[in-house]
Amino acid sequence: MANVKFSVYPPCNVMRAFLKEIFIRTGSRVEFVDITREVEEAVRESGIRSGVAIIFTPHTTTGIFLNEDEGGLKKDLERVLERLIPGKGGYLHDEVDHNAYAHLRSIILGVSLAMPVENGGLMLGAWQSIFLAELDGPRGRRVYVKVIGSD
Amino acid sequence: MANVKFSVYPPCNVMRAFLKEIFIRTGSRVEFVDITREVEEAVRESGIRSGVAIIFTPHTTTGIFLNEDEGGLKKDLERVLERLIPGKGGYLHDEVDHNAYAHLRSIILGVSLAMPVENGGLMLGAWQSIFLAELDGPRGRRVYVKVIGSD
Amino acid sequence: MANVKFSVYPPCNVMRAFLKEIFIRTGSRVEFVDITREVEEAVRESGIRSGVAIIFTPHTTTGIFLNEDEGGLKKDLERVLERLIPGKGGYLHDEVDHNAYAHLRSIILGVSLAMPVENGGLMLGAWQSIFLAELDGPRGRRVYVKVIGSD
Known about the structure:
3 copies of one chain form a homotrimer.
Chain A: H1 2-8, E1 15-25, E2 31-34, H2 36-46, E3 50-56, E4 62-67, H3 71-84, H4 100-109, E5 112-118, E6 121-122, E7 129-134, E8 140-150
Antiparallel strand pairs in A: 1-8, 2-7, 3-5, 3-8, 4-7, 5-6
């Protein structure tokens, strides 16, 4: 039996998929929350050594992006978004709800990120942090971390 | 033989990859087509229960994004794109072809989306729809749905 | 033994993950480098026939996008980025470092791309090229190509 196992097991990679939901309570109308630690923890929990991680937020007024966690830069981003897609812009959607600007900024930022996983961790660069962009808070928000790969 | 199978089969996940091409005929120059139903159908057809779906458009004047399917908001997005990247902008590429604005908007929106698949379906939020952005129509367009995961 | 192998091997897909790092030396402050050939080569090297490729840059002042490799269009994109997020914008991050504009443009362009792989190659459209956007060069830059799928 031991020989049989040995002869058939190696060609099969033990590929698996893992999912974790992260809950974040945001504190302001617009806010960029560093969720790197939570996402890295999810990848470690998955036990997957080599594969791909998808970081996804299931809302229409949030975004996901990668960049440096520096206070001045986060303020700069807030100002750039306000200049490109102003909070008050005479939007048609504001007749339904008062957050058209938040939807439009979410479309520009995107809600999904695909990253390589290697040696059991995310292949983040030295200055890269993972951010949830709250664009219509404060609210409770969710981020899904889906990891697919092999041990 | 039965015992042998039993002893080696369980560690192997039946991971598979599935591809579907979706064809969309757009009706105007700029248009945001809700393709959620078609993409969800592709994921169901794949038979994959847990994994990742990639939604990808192979054109240089289309985009893929997620947001709410509300008429006013779609008009707002059209106006925002026209303000940020005007149809007529004295672009150099317009000497080659007359659609530089459509290429530039495609770069800003992006052409690819990665999403978690769980329980045989996309993990879309309550208000999220999947859109193909037609930026230089009307034309016949393609979207690829690639699903990778296990039964 | 041969029979045993035959009876258990077919249900197991030989799913694998492959990683390649690409190094690029950029030549100017802002530059869009066509890396299609290098990424396609990585996918071929992987030997994976059907699956997903993740193209990821681990920097905070670069971006990844897909579009047409045409000289005029690349110049148009440079001008659009300069208009939307000017090099000199009185940014707070410029008190720490002098490249806030490059971080902000990276956030707008994104640093990750997920693509379907089929028949051993990327499913690129006829006019699509893969670009690394250098936003604060010239420098040595890295791009990771992670491929996951089956032979």
